Amino acid sequence: MLLEAKNISFRYRKGPWILKDVTLSVGEGERVGLVGPSGYGKSTLSKILAGYIKPTSGEVLLDGRELQEEGHSPVQLIYQHPEKAINPLWRMKDILNEGWVPDQLTLDSIGIEQGWLERCPGELSGGEMQRFCIARVLGPKTRFLIADEMSTMLDVITQAQIWELMVRIIEDRRMGLIVVTHNKALAEKVCTRIISLPELNKL
Ligand code: ADP
Ligand code: MG
């Protein structure tokens, strides 16, 4: 499996160009760090790679073919603030099972405890919540994960646990991972390869 971004340029409506002629590729089993300071277009590029927004020009290819718009995307995003994307009144079991129903083995391997399933989002720690977010995007069709500042809001011990977990999942499932972060030291710890977006971006 190969995820490619080819000559991606992007601007929001008539705003300034954010991305210009950005080309990159990620293979299965790879953990690629996409680093750069805040405001340099990392989240914008993440959304383009996941198919959430269309590039102004250029294309995103999975094994040489364009991503399909309908259905579950094989490229899934995990955000910094998961609580913003979910209904605070739902039980975690309903949030978890919205897209697909993870089996017990998957839940165990991610360290999700049975007792958390009956709780609402506000009754979980940041690390516990991120475990749910990881489980949610691991449906059978998922081949690539993009973690956009996924651990920025967590303390260092929880960060280390979450990244250890992510590396194991990516290796076990032969998936690809893009670690989007302003924290180069973190990317160097977790990734097999680092890309600097400001260096890649031909603005
Ligand atoms: P990063 O993730 O590297 O911090 P972003 O991709 O979030 O960067 O933002 C890049 C630039 O795009 C910023 O100048 C930001 O203000 C702008 N931007 C982000 N989202 C929007 C939007 N929905 N509409 C207009 N401009 C946006
Ligand atoms: Mg961002």
UniProtKB/TrEMBL annotation:
The lineage of its organism: Bacteria, Bacillati, Bacillota, Negativicutes, Selenomonadales. It comes from the Bacteria. InterPro entries: AAA+_ATPase, ABC_transp_ATP-bind, ABC_transporter-like_ATP-bd, ABC_transporter-like_CS, P-loop_NTPase. Pfam families: ABC_tran. This is Nickel import ATP-binding protein NikE. Residues 3-203 form the ABC transporter domain. Its EC number is 3.6.3.24. SUPFAM superfamilies: P-loop containing nucleoside triphosphate hydrolases (SSF52540). The keyword Transport applies. Keywords: ATP-binding, Hydrolase, Nucleotide-binding, Transport. Belongs to the ABC transporter superfamily. PANTHER family: D,D-DIPEPTIDE TRANSPORT ATP-BINDING PROTEIN DDPF-RELATED, TRANSPORT ATP-BINDING PROTEIN. GO terms for molecular function: ATP binding; hydrolase activity. The gene is nikE_2.
